[in-house]
Amino acid sequence: MERDPKLDALVVQFGKQYGNCAQTSFLTLQKHFNLPCDVPSFVRAINPLPGIGQTGKTCGGVSGALLALGLAAGTADPANKQQSAKCHAAAHEFCVAFTKEFGSTDCGDIIERCCGKRFDLSNPLEAKQYAEAGGIMKCMNVVQTAVHVAAGILERELTGRNDSK
Q1: Would you say the pTM of this structure is higher than 0.85?
Q2: 99, part of any domain
Q3: Is residue 143 part of a domain?
Q4: Of the N and C termini of the chain, which has fewer Cβ atoms inside 10 Å?
């Protein structure tokens, strides 16, 4: 996968500003693709998503990217089943590609893979150990990868092409 340095720079910028992988992935994609939304409300709503409330479940980089995919490819019309199906397919494609890269979409599994150990980030001592093990920078790379995977899908969805199927 070819990486866009502008996307990587936005991930670093938002990562330093928010320190939250879900907010970082969402805001990077929202800004890069100029996705219309009430940004302050989304930022607040996304706040608990890293590891789904720090339980080690779905990675925040995944959650934020999926929200951006939903904004771009989803529909607010419950009768538009075709667009809903298209959005679900894009989300599935993203999750499969992300899992291929990291072996899972779960935060705890990814941290264990990247850091060699699982950390309970809700525990202040383990959160400190995670940071000391370089976990923050390792997860920044995970978020950058999530953003690049989602960006490839978004570019195709927003231009109306469907070259991968």
Answers
A1: yes
A2: yes
A3: yes
A4: C
Residue 87 in any domain: the answer is yes
**Residue 2: per-residue pLDDT:** 79
Domain count, the chain: 1
Short-list 64, 57, 38, 45, CA closest to 107: 57
Handedness of CA 156, 161, 163, 165 (dihedral sign): positive
Q: Is 165 among the domain residues?
A: no
Sign of the dihedral through C-alpha 31, 11, 87, 97: positive
In this model, does residue 165 exceed pLDDT 70? Answer: no
Q: What confidence tens digit (pLDDT) does each residue in 26-46 have?
A: 999 999 999 999 999 999 999
147: containing domain:
5-159
Q: Smallest Cα–Cα separation from 113: which of 152, 141, 90, 82?
A: 141
pLDDT of 163 over the 50 cut: no
